[in-house]
Design goal:
The complex is a heterodimer.
Chain A lengths: L8 E5 L11 H15 L3 E6 L14 E4 L4 H11 L3 E3 L4 H14 L1 H5 L2 E2 L4 H8 L1 H11 L6 E4 L2 H11 L3 E5 L9 E3 L2 H14 L5 E5 L5 E9 L5 E9 L12 E2 L7 H18 L3 E9 L6 E7 L4 H10 L3 H9 L28
Parallel strand pairs in A: 1-2, 1-4, 2-3, 4-5
Antiparallel strand pairs in A: 6-9, 7-8, 7-9, 10-11, 10-13, 11-12, 13-14
Helix pairs in contact in A: 1-11, 5-6, 7-8
Chain B lengths: L11 H10 L9 H4 L5 E3 L5 E5 L5 H9 L3 E5 L5 H6 L4 E4 L10 H10 L5 E4 L1 H9 L4 E17 L5 E12 L9 E7 L5 E6 L4 E4 L14 H14 L1
The chains are: A alpha/beta, B alpha/beta.
């Protein structure tokens, strides 16, 4: 498919401030995207509140606005610049949230700005817990069973159905006060009773506990023609239960057999297809080390911190390709930067098959 | 290229001599060394498929069994008459080692079977079908190995990542003027990865849709074979 028609000027929402959960990886992605769009001959307008980023260098975009990333300021820039398209999926969560707000405020429709890349509907489906659960059930991908309870009896009956251990999370408490992992029925009763007391609405969420299972993620890409590839997978050296921030992640996975690798790869492709993502996406799994049972833990419908690692580890420019996919190109049409005659579907270094 | 790697003998002259005496890939009897010598049957309630074993990967059999097929595995030198006497719904040509021109008896058998019964070939089986239909094969400069080759299905335009292990290929030039078309193409080097007869129920792929190891993206090819048998059976 050729470049989308009628799009000459594209606005990119930058990464914003560096905060916990959002750091320089989005500057990396945004910079790649700006270069990639200009390569296709497009005029790029960038808005970012953080001047200490590479992407706000004067040679990265045709015009750079250093303004707060709020609905009001971004709307003003849109009115002034009148871009044909908006690419929000490379600025992390800030960009995605802003895109949702802009769409809801009606300014995109009023100014005739086309939202590029992954459709908003797909983003909502991946980020809304309930919608996500419904979709996973519809395509038969397992997610950890959970139930909201307001009494000990309900908690006990769920435990009899699912088995122990279970995670107990009280609703609306700060920092998970009153929650915990129950390994026995006694513990379940104690923790649930405590949780119900702490929760201001007397509710706790009880969820299947996959502590000790392998923690894996796949970086996947899809284009508008439904072609999909996995860039690589990654494995957390510590199992589920140890926070990723306290652990080490390695690309590619170190302990999977081909059967396990392909099982999760197939599931990742099924998920990115059913979400309808156009660009990059990250799918996280928990895998039982002693069976082929797994759960889908989370899906990020955008480039994420893992994409930066995957990009560096494989040499595959994920954000650059995501930007070209957003402009309507398909994976088999996108050429590798080097060597010239190879197309991007050729993966580098033989990393984990794809 | 033939060569010798040595950790003991350091006499260059002797090693070169050894390399010279290594047999060429072409001209060896590799298929009979790895294929079954006896007929055996794996039960199933669906179509009866005769698998001509040239060194078949077990997962080809598993993929057929998952689709309900009864699989009769026969040696590579089984004649067309013997295969038809088993009254199968289709014939599967397996993968295998070496140069496809080293199994002329199998090429002859397939030539007799084409048009009489649905045929599906994988890897060496694909090359044998190509040769049986009048195309030529050649030794590639760079063979395809590994589980990450992009292959485009030219009918649908979709690209699948697939598992490859082949050093020979069907020559596209030699297919011109014949009743066969290229159905799949490798996006790295443009080589033929699948072919299909224009009118008769016979098709094949060069790569490994049965996966294991490698991606399962192309298992739909087995469904196409089942559909073809459904259609012909009626």
């Amino acid at each position: 498919m050729p470049l989308k028609k009628g799009i000459r000027k594209v606005m990119v929402i930058g990464s914003g401030p560096i905060i916990i959960g959002q750091a320089a990886e989005f500057d990396y992605a945004g910079t790649q995207a700006c270069r990639s769009l200009r390569e296709e001959g497009l005029e790029v307008v960038l808005i970012n509140s953080n001047p200490a980023t590479i992407m706000t260098d004067s040679n990265m975009a045709d015009r750079v606005y250093i303004e707060p990333l709020t609905l009001e300021f971004v709307s003003r820039v849109i009115r002034q610049e009148k871009p044909d398209g908006l690419l929000p999926t490379l600025g992390g969560q800030v960009g995605l949230n802003l895109a949702l707000q802009l769409a809801e405020s009606g300014i995109l429709a009023k100014e005739g700005v086309q939202l590029l890349g992954t459709p908003l509907e797909s983003i909502k489906r991946a980020e809304d817990r309930e919608l996500f659960k419904e979709m996973m059930q519809a395509i038969g991908e397992p997610i950890p069973e959970s139930v909201i309870v307001s009494s000990l009896e309900e908690a006990e009956s769920f435990a009899r159905e699912i088995g122990l251990p279970l995670i107990v999370r009280p609703a609306y408490t700060l920092g998970g006060t009153g929650g915990g992992i129950a390994y026995t029925m006694d513990e379940l009763r104690n923790i649930t009773a405590r949780g119900l007391k702490y929760s201001i609405i007397n509710q706790v969420l009880i969820e299947r506990c996959v502590v000790g299972w392998k923690e894996l993620e796949y970086e996947v890409m899809r284009d508008s023609a439904d072609n999909c590839i996995t860039i690589c997978n990654m494995e957390n050296i510590d199992p589920m239960g140890i926070h990723t921030g306290d652990s080490i992640v390695v690309a590619p996975s170190q302990t999977l057999s081909d059967k396990e690798y392909q099982l999760l790869r197939t599931a990742s492709l099924k998920i990115i297809r059913s979400l309808g993502i156009e660009g990059g996406c990250n799918v996280q799994f928990a895998l039982d080390p002693s069976s082929f049972q797994y759960y889908v833990i989370e899906v990020n419908p955008r480039v994420s911190r893992s994409s930066a690692l995957a990009s560096k580890a494989t040499g595959y420019p994920i954000a650059k390709v995501a930007a070209k996919i957003a402009m309507g190109l398909t994976l088999d049409e996108i050429k590798m930067p080097l060597p010239e005659d190879l197309c991007l579907l050729r993966t580098l270094a033989g990393l984990c098959g794809c | 290229m033939r060569g010798v790697i040595s950790t003991g003998d350091a006499d260059a002259q002797a090693l070169v001599e050894k390399a010279r005496n290594c047999p060429h890939l072409t001209g060896q009897e590799l298929v009979p060394a790895v294929a079954t010598t006896e007929v055996y049957t794996l039960p199933g309630n669906g179509h009866r498929v005769v698998l001509m074993d040239f060194g078949a990967k077990l997962n080809i059999i598993r993929c057929l069994q998952e689709r309900g097929c009864e699989v009769v595995v026969v040696p590579p030198n089984t004649t067309a008459g013997d295969i038809l006497a088993l009254h199968p719904a289709g014939v599967m040509l397996s993968n295998g080692p070496g140069d496809p021109t080293d199994v002329p008896y199998a090429i002859e058998t397939v030539r007799e079977l084409v048009g009489r019964i649905p045929i599906f070939g994988i890897c060496l089986g694909h090359q044998i079908l190509g040769l049986a239909l009048g195309a030529r094969t050649y030794k590639m400069k760079f063979g395809h190995r590994g589980a990450n080759h992009p292959v485009k299905d030219l009918e649908t335009g979709r690209v699948y990542i697939s598992s490859h292990n082949h050093g020979f290929s069907v020559d596209e030039e030699s297919m011109k003027g014949l009743d066969i078309i290229v159905s799949h193409r490798n996006l790295n080097d443009g080589t033929v990865e699948g072919l299909k007869h224009k009118f008769l129920p016979a098709f094949s792929v060069q790569y490994h849709p049965e996966a294991s190891p490698g991606p399962r993206d192309s298992e739909y090819i087995f469904d196409q074979f089942i559909d073809m048998m459904d259609k012909e059976w009626r």
